[in-house]
Amino acid sequence: MKAVAQDSLLGEVVFDAAQIASAVERLAAEIKRDYAGEPIMLVGVLKGAIAFYADLMRALGEHPLTLDFVVVSSYGSGREGGKGDVRLLKDLDQKPAGKNVLLVEDIVDEGLTLDYLLNNLRSREPRSLRACALMDKPFHRVVPVTIDYIGLTAPDAFLVGYGLDYQEGFRNLPYICKLKRHPQS
Ligand code: PRP
Fold first, then answer.
1. pTM metric for this prediction
2. Closest protein CA for atom 15 of ligand 1
3. Is-cis flag, bond preceding 47, omega within 30?
4. Which of 25, 31, 33, 64 is the most exposed place for a label (fewest CB within 10 A)?
5. How do strand 159-160 and strand 176-179 relate by DSSP bridges?
């Protein structure tokens, strides 16, 4: 098997594991306080949210919650790296009607993905609907979206690690860093 020198693509670390853990703890504390023991349907947006979702879920400790996931399309007709047309590739397993749905995203960039999901879920009459993002990257917003819980503000760069990928690689990094030699980095 041919070895690929993936680490040569990795640039400056933007958020290390301790900074991420601290943001996750703060978000979990805010969520626990706001929901005050009310059960939450925690909806992860795969694949990017996988690391954040797993850590947030555990940081929520004994708060009652159920787990569910959606998968949305990754590519569209928007700007380079943008989403353009967003489509649901995998829907929820549970019905969201009457539930306190909390969407969990790794990053909000143009806002198209979150806007699509909020509209989609709102039409199915959840009891409440909020969004939590580890990172807000507000520089190229195409649609305004309300993010109820924001962990960190991302720089305007192509980021990988802690769930974020470049060509499906780097999701397993325990930190978030810039990617070298990319048009957007
Ligand atoms: C990323 C991220 C968000 C979305 C945000 O997912 O996880 O879901 O982009 O982008 P937007 O605000 O510009 O719409 P991606 O489509 O890269 O797929 P992935 O989750 O499988 O990495």
1. 0.92
2. 74
3. yes
4. 33
5. antiparallel
* 109 has catalytic annotation: yes
Tens-digit pLDDT profile for the chain (185 aa)?
Answer: 555 556 689 999 999 999 999 999 999 999 999 999 999 999 999 999 999 999 999 999 999 999 999 999 866 445 555 666 899 999 999 999 999 999 999 999 999 999 999 999 999 999 999 999 999 999 999 999 999 999 999 999 999 999 999 999 999 999 999 999 765 54
Cα–ligand 1 centroid distance for 12 (angstroms): 21
| CA proximity to 35, closest of 67, 59, 61, 64 | 64
Residue nearest to atom 7 of ligand 1 (CA): 48
Written as one letter, the residue type at 106 is D
